[in-house]
């Protein structure tokens, strides 16, 4: 669909019911101005807020799509879980989902329909939701079928028919999850077809993505996000870099050529396994990854007096913790780059850093999530001369 900068709402028929795209009543340039203003209001007291980096084509950017299923009078439907009610709102042509991912969801639904496989309704049925991920640069496509129990009726026929319908699917995984919250994944994955993961490429590196690992949903913008983090880090080749909240190690591995030593820490065991593999396949021999709580790890590093020149941190929306920041200040890296997906918690955390001898140098918002009110921001800090 051609991008029309003056278009509001994009004619999305489920705008209000779905609730996913909170800013759809604004044109894209208006959305960018709104996000810029919000970042200035929250972060302007720390440093100049650079102009937000927007998307050229702000549609169909989500290469991670999750959909629920429901039986209606019109038959089996797929769509988003409405926040609050938890009901499934049927969605056919979502403007932010990658179209290949949407197509895979429709094929999963139609295959279920054909074989009489029922969605989990809270008491009976089996399939809770589907998660589809596509590697934008590799084209690899993963369908994760999330079931209430290990039972998936007509499992073999399901996989066979799904692949006949959509041969572009490179791997099918069954994930078992009894958690009552919608869209969560369980710990158990059974690979039904293919390798059980996909790969994608960013900044000349290859990354493996498993069903449970975090990976940015907008790969077209992720390269710009990571490049900003690397530019702000400004490594000279010999530094020891810590990648905290590293997920599958993507930022660290992308930076590893420019660092002397790379250490990564991450809570999720699957992500750490992927990070180790990502380091290996990209020839990052100077990298080590550890599973653990970032704050506890940082404290151990600070106490041991191990050398730390640069820190890149990319915590979830809740932000980092006072405990992590205290330990980071004690370890005393010259440079810190903070990648944030929530400007409010970033502001809270920057305030702690600036009270402890760090100065914010650059702040650049990046629009990873057009039409939603989420905003990604990269900030860089340096240690004040006085506190050295
Ligand atoms: N930098 C990565 C991942 C960022 S998402 C990327 O760009 O892909 C944030 C990550 O923080 C998630 O992988 C999550 O599992 C991890 N995480 C959350 N709390 C944590 C904690 N207390 N200690 C370490 N990692 C944590």
Order of strands in the sheet with most strands: 3-2-1-4-5-6-7
Major β-sheet profile: 7 strands, mixed
- The CATH homologous superfamily name of the largest domain equals Vaccinia Virus protein VP39
Helix and strand element order: HHEEEHEEHEEEEHEHEHEHEHEHEE
Ions, cofactors, ligands: which are bound? S-adenosyl-L-homocysteine
- What would the CATH topology of the largest domain be? Rossmann fold
Please explain how this structure is put together:
The termini are far apart. The longest helix is centred in the N-terminal third of the chain and has 17 residues, at about 100-115. The model has no long low-confidence stretch (mean pLDDT about 95). Helix 2 runs parallel beside helix 10 (about 345-355). This protein is an alpha/beta fold and about 400 residues long. It folds into 2 domains: about 45-55 and about 220-385, Rossmann fold, CATH 3.40.50.150; about 65-200, Beta Barrel (OB fold (Dihydrolipoamide Acetyltransferase, E2P)). It is built from 10 helices and 16 strands. Bound molecules: S-adenosyl-L-homocysteine.
Concise summary:
This protein is α/β, with parallel strands linked by helices. The chain is built from ten helices and 16 strands.
List the helices and strands and how they pair.
Blueprint: H1 15-18, H2 28-43, E1 64-72, E2 75-81, E3 88-90, H3 99-115, E4 127-134, E5 141-147, H4 155-165, E6 171-176, E7 188-193, E8 198-202, E9 205-209, H5 219-233, E10 240-244, H6 250-255, E11 261-266, H7 269-281, E12 287-291, H8 294-304, E13 310-313, H9 322-331, E14 335-340, H10 343-355, E15 358-366, E16 376-383
Bound molecules: S-adenosyl-L-homocysteine.
